[in-house]
Amino acid sequence: MSVVRRSVELLTPPGAGGVAVLSVNGPRALARLGALTGAGVPAPGGVRLAILREPDAAPGDPPLDEALLVGRSEGVEVHTHGSPSIIAAVTEWLSGEAGGGGAPAEVGALSLEERAERAAATAPSAIGARVLLDQAGGALRRELTELADVEPAERRRRLAALASEGQRCARLWTPTVVAIVGPVNAGKSTLFNTLLGEHQATVTPRPGTTRDALAAPAELGGWPVFLVDTAGERDLAPELGRGAEVEAEGQLLARGVASRADLVLELTSDAAVAGQVEAPAADGAPPRLRLRSRAAEQDGAEPAGWSPLAISALEEPAHARARVGTLFKAALGLGDRSPWEAGRAVPFEPDLVARMCDLATGDTVERSALASLLAAL
User: Fold this and answer.
1) What is the Cα gyration radius of the chain?
2) Strand partners, 20
3) Distance (Å, whole) CA 123 – CA 107
4) DSSP calls for 178-241
């Protein structure tokens, strides 16, 4: 008897959880997924972060969710947040069952504060939700209203600072994809588990244990990220034809993940190779941060004697989390300041940030231009 496969299947157990995984197959469901992302779906072996928005959503309308898309030989895996309401909404859209009554009010009819409150409900981290709830409480409107009473040049300076903060905090709404790569047995899966704070990736001394890309949401230095653990690199030529083909596919997937990530954490045990940050290449490759792992085995048990680029996730997990968080913020220019400070004004909509940038390009910002901006909120 043949088994009829559904176009959208939940692969993870039902109910609330940190992450849910949906398998999407068939041309119609994949076309709907492409419409939700607005940019198509990845090819087999490809991995990318996507914002899932209803195709008929108004500009600025909060998305259904953000998801990690993993291309498979048949269809695409969609890794979303594990809220039952999010799973149901995404499944309905992908299955073609959405679009009935009870649609939410048009975003254009909502105030800035109402839009912030709605966005907070789907924020990928608690810190991001706090920032948005401050705006829901009027922090941004109060700051813009105060600017009407300052000198035009000072108004321009403060507006530019607001726009800059909006650009920095954009990583609160769209988590950074961080790929962990390196040779086999470099400690990638151990670091992955350490940064998550729970055991998700299998760790053994046997080379080639990780043969796939395992992704999960986490935080680095207070910023939301998607961590991706990948298969280790080693020469498989002598073993091809003798069972190493699956591991070779895992290595190919790892390279694809690394090429599409926002930041690559490369682990090595060679002190001569470890370096601060390799800037993005001309071909668009992401910045690469090289860290020396297993420092406790090479430099002694005390982290105080290790170099700033050395970690030992197994022996000193707290040190590894703190060190990677600090280097992550430095690599992406996020600064040491917390992404959330109670009551701080932060523009959270890309269009609003762009308008502020435009206004701040001149020598001054006139009161009338600021009044027009406020009227649009």
Assistant:
1) 23
2) 80
3) 17
4) EEEE-BTTSSHHHHHHHHHTS--S---SSTT---S-EEEEEEETTEEEEEEE-PPB---GGGTT
The DSSP symbol for 310 reads B
Distance CA 276, CA 212 (A): 27
Burial 339-356 (b: 16+ CB within 10 A, else e): bbeeebbbbbbeebbebb
Asked, for residue 1, whether it belongs to a domain, the answer is no
User: Which one, of 153, 151, 155, 174, lies nearest residue 163 by Cα?
Assistant: 155
Whether residue 102 is contained in a domain is answered as no
β-bridge partners, 67:
50
pTM, entire model? 0.65
Which uninterrupted H or E stretch holds 71? strand 65-71
Cα 293 from Cα 298, distance rounded (Å): 9
Contact 159, 200 (CB under 8 A): no
Residues 223 and 365 reside in one and the same domain: no
Which regions in the chain score pLDDT beneath 50? 1-4, 99-108, 204, 207-210
Cβ atoms 222, 176 nearer than 8 A = no
289 within domain boundaries: yes
Is 344 found in the same domain as 310?
no
Shared domain check, 316 and 208: yes
Identify whether 370 is part of a domain.
yes
pLDDT digits (tens, 9 = 90+) for 234-243: 655 555 555 5
The model's pLDDT over 51-88, given as tens digits with 9 standing for 90+, comes to: 888 777 665 667 788 888 888 877 888 888 877 778 88
Instruction: Indicate the burial class of 177 (C-beta count within 10 angstroms; 0-12, 13-18, 19 or more).
Output: buried
**Residues 340/132, Cβ–Cβ less than 8 Å:** no
How many distinct structural domains can be found in the chain?
Answer: 3
The last residue of one of the domains, among 72, 95, 118, is 95
H-run or E-run covering 268: strand 263-268
Structure-token pair, residue 26:
């068939």
What CATH number is attached to the domain comprising 49? 3.30.1360.120
Residue where a domain stops, chosen among 95, 124, 152: 95
The answer to whether the beta carbons of residues 324 and 220 sit under 8 Å apart is yes
Q: Which domain holds residue 348?
A: 110-169+339-375
